[in-house]
Specification:
The protein is about 40% helix and about 15% strand. With about 180 residues, the chain is an alpha/beta fold. β1, α4 and β2 form a beta-alpha-beta unit.
Length: about 180
């Protein structure tokens, strides 16, 4: 999944590359596009009075996964509002769960990656994403992929940056192996 809904998103391209690699390594892949979910900004009032069906559907998709690969753009040194809002909604208890259930995330594995036209490849945002995912009880693998100068790192949908092209398969492999070990 990518934390961007922008047309032509570098992070969506990176997420698609990761999904292709995961599938090639034998993983069953579900691609999630956040723009397919009409998520209002999280509020406790809305959660308790009219939990959005779109948030319930997104959470159900997360619950079904053993691992999640997240390609996050960097917005002002952190994660995108779209991604943070999706995590906030999916972290909320539903269907009689206790307040700390975190069924969409607890005990699952995450791999984090980012692509940015800047020189750091979204690295500052990945630090925040790692912290957020740890807070919702995910095990974030140590490897991460930050693709700098993303405007030159792709040829169409193909990742052509030589360093990222070496790191991404290792990251995907670690996520699959770790999720398999925990299952």
């Amino acid at each position: 999944m990518a934390g961007s809904g922008r047309d032509g998103s570098f992070n969506q391209r990176l997420a698609d590359c990761a999904a292709t690699l995961a599938s090639a390594q034998g993983a069953e892949v579900t691609s999630i596009r956040l723009e397919d979910f009409d998520l209002p900004i999280y509020s406790h009032r809305l959660e308790t009075t009219a939990f959005p069906e779109s948030a319930r559907r997104l959470k159900a998709l997360f619950v079904e996964q053993d691992a999640i690969l997240i390609a996050s753009p960097e917005y002002n040194g952190s994660v995108s509002g779209l991604l943070k809002n999706a995590i906030d909604w999916a972290s909320r208890p539903t269907d009689g769960e206790g307040p700390l259930a975190l069924s969409a995330f607890r005990g699952k594995v995450a791999g984090i990656l980012s692509a940015s036209p800047g020189p750091y490849g979204g690295l500052r945002g990945l630090m925040h994403l790692r912290q957020i995912l740890g807070t919702v009880q995910m095990l974030v693998v140590p490897e991460q992929a930050a693709v700098p100068f993303a405007d030159r790192a792709f040829d169409g949908a193909a990742l052509t940056d030589p360093v990222a092209a070496q790191v991404l398969p290792l990251l995907v492999q670690r996520v699959i192996k770790t999720a398999g070990s925990l299952k």
